[in-house]
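Folds abound. Consider this:
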Amino acid sequence: MKNFICIMCPKGCHLTVDESNDYQVSGYSCNKGVKYGKAEATNPVRVVTSTVIVDGGSGHLCSVKTADGIPKKAVLAAMKEINKVQLQAPVKIGDIAIKNLLDTGVDVVVTSEIQAS
């Protein structure tokens, strides 16, 4: 049995996932809890947010995030890759900072704008 607190809505339901019984979920208030509990027990993923350096712009950092969740076990390696990135201004929301991060099929995208100086 694994226990989680669901983060899919503000209720924060206390979920129990029975691994020995086809990952049956209990303690949920809505179907989002079932989906979250099964996913967290079988293949936990996280969206990673960070900042990267921007050269030649009105600011020195811009915010970035993974476009989707990546495997939880890959988060530290992902941060090492993100920390290597330096972009050239201008950058716009939606620009791709890293394509296919760690061969996960997930891009790292810019979430703030920096104008060229």
Notes: The mean pLDDT is 96. The first helix runs from residue 31 to 42. The first strand starts at residue 2 and ends at 5.
